[in-house]
Amino acid sequence: MKKLILLLTFVTFVSCNTEKARQKVEEFRLEKSKTAINTVLDAWHKAAADADFNAYFSKMTDAAIFIGTDATENWKNEDFKAFSKPYFDKGKAWSFTALERNVFISEYGDIAWFDELLDTQMELCRGSGVLKKVNDTWKISHYVLSIAIPNDNVKEIVKLKQANDSIVKSQL
Questions:
Q1: Please, are residues 95 and 51 in contact by the beta-carbon 8 Å criterion?
Q2: With 80 as the cut, is the pLDDT of residue 31 above it?
Q3: What is the CA radius of gyration of the chain?
Q4: What DSSP line would sit under 132-159, residue for residue?
Q5: Which residues, in sequence order, are bridge partners of residue 100?
Q6: Which domain holds residue 117?
Q7: 3-state secondary structure of 43
Q8: Contact between 126 and 117 (Cβ < 8 Å)
Q9: DSSP for 56-124, written as a single string
Q10: Alpha carbon of 73 to those of 16, 59, 66, 83: distances in Å?
Q11: Is the model's pTM score more than 0.85?
Q12: Total structural domains in the chain?
């Protein structure tokens, strides 16, 4: 009986320690992925600020989508490259600096999504997007940029954009 109790105690001890070790490995893996994702996003924003076209688009998947602040800006990657190239060629694209960012990773560790508050030439903006692992490298697959408008100013902004929005809606 004592041997059975000792065996059960040993199995319980090993099981608990194995679970704790597995959790620590999982936490380390998640933090490592989040660090890699933050590095990619920061480098992507820096590449735009430096007007480095190749570095900027190397951080995106071939099928990436970029949704800009204008209602007409829903760009497939090749179209976004064509739109962006003249800005990069002039040596001045755009400059976004993340003030805060939240990163979330799927349970399989191959898809991540994020939101960020940005300091930009348009003042505060929000960015959000999806990254996926491509050959062990995180790449931006989808990005949405929006201008942060204080709730108290929404009515005046709506009035400013109403005519343009009517045109866009009539074309859809």
A1: no
A2: yes
A3: 23
A4: EEETTEEEEEEEEEEE---GGGHHHHHH
A5: 117
A6: 2-171
A7: helix
A8: yes
A9: HHHTEEEEEEEE-SSTT-EEEHHHHHHHHHHHHHTT-----EEEEEEEEE-TTSSEEEEEEEEEETTEE
A10: 53, 20, 8, 10
A11: no
A12: 1
Q: β-strands 97-105, 74-76: how paired?
A: unpaired
Given this model, what pLDDT does residue 52 score? 98
CATH code for the domain of 75: 3.10.450.50
Length of the chain equals: 172
With tokens 């090749």, the residue in question is 78
Beta-bridged to residue 119, according to DSSP, are 97, 124
pLDDT category at 46 given cuts 50, 70, 90 is very high
Q: Which of 162, 126, 123, 131 is nearest to 144 (CA)?
A: 126
Q: What is the per-residue pLDDT across 126-149, written as a single tens digit (0 to 9) for each?
A: 999 999 999 999 999 999 999 999
Q: Tell me the one-letter amino acid at 112.
A: A
